[in-house]
Amino acid sequence: MNIRRLRPTTALVGAAALGLTTLTACSTNAGDGRTDGKLDVVASFYPMQFLAQRIGGNAVHVSSLTKPGVEPHDLEISPRQTADLSKAGLVVYLKGLQPSVDRAIAQAEPKQVADAASYTSLEDHGTEVEGEHEHGGEGEAGEAGHEGHGHSGDAAADPHIWLDPVRYAQVAKGVGKALEKADPDHAATYKKNTTALVKELSTLDQDFRSGLKGRSSDTFITTHAAFGYLAERYGLRQEAISGLDPESEPSPARVKGLHTIAKKDKVNTVFFETLVSDRTARTLAGDLHLRTDVLDPIEGIGSKSKGDDMRANLNALRKALGAK
Hints:
Elements: H1 11-18, E1 34-35, E2 38-43, H2 46-56, E3 60-64, H3 79-87, E4 90-93, H4 99-108, E5 113-115, H5 165-182, H6 187-211, E6 219-222, H7 228-234, E7 237-240, H8 252-264, E8 269-272, H9 279-288, E9 291-294, H10 309-321
Parallel strand pairs: 2-3, 2-4, 4-5, 6-7, 6-8, 8-9
Antiparallel strand pairs: 1-2
């Protein structure tokens, strides 16, 4: 089964396909963190929302702090949202990705929290040296050339763990355990749903492994450095245009370096994403006479989002890397 994102205009269709319901506002009671007998779960952004809804199923109400179309890194928490956090039965988030969420959780002190970063390992995928071509090693043991996001906490840690199916499965198990602790009456449901989702992610991992065989290149160029874990998992090399900030402009030295990389590694595609401007990516592609395509970090929901992001990413990489 595909791991999908909901489009805001087709939320009901997506919900039917995945068993998901997408809410953008919290609906909590002031008492025990439940509404109509269901556990109120607040997720920080889409990948956490997805896990909470898939594992929680009909036993939970799930809302997201990050509204559709908002770049998660830019989120600012309102006083109302902070108050809602204090009432939630469980908060599912990724510490270090959204500083405003980290501060709000510290202030609200919700009853139960599930920090995705605590369920798997976070790594430093390196920072760009002006104009240099940084290549990582092959497979799981190597590091992809990658610029880490500047986040609170460990600024060198790359937070994009959900783009690696293996790490995402580890997080899913952790979220399942957190749901069991917060709502023991439905523990059997959470165990069953966790097992099913982990199985889907294992299949996705195998599909990436087989789908990227026989490729003619390992290197891909993308807007911002979100794909370090994915690159590391499957022996690829990520080269990001902006790196630290999806909206930032690359230095002249970085652009010159990307020109060299594209020619040396026979890159034929420059990837952009749906929640940030594609101007720089398209300019670079035009200068090099390369094609453009979407490689989605799946950080949030937007009107241009594809309905099948993880597998759409695989198909886009297969085409760009010449996989057979």
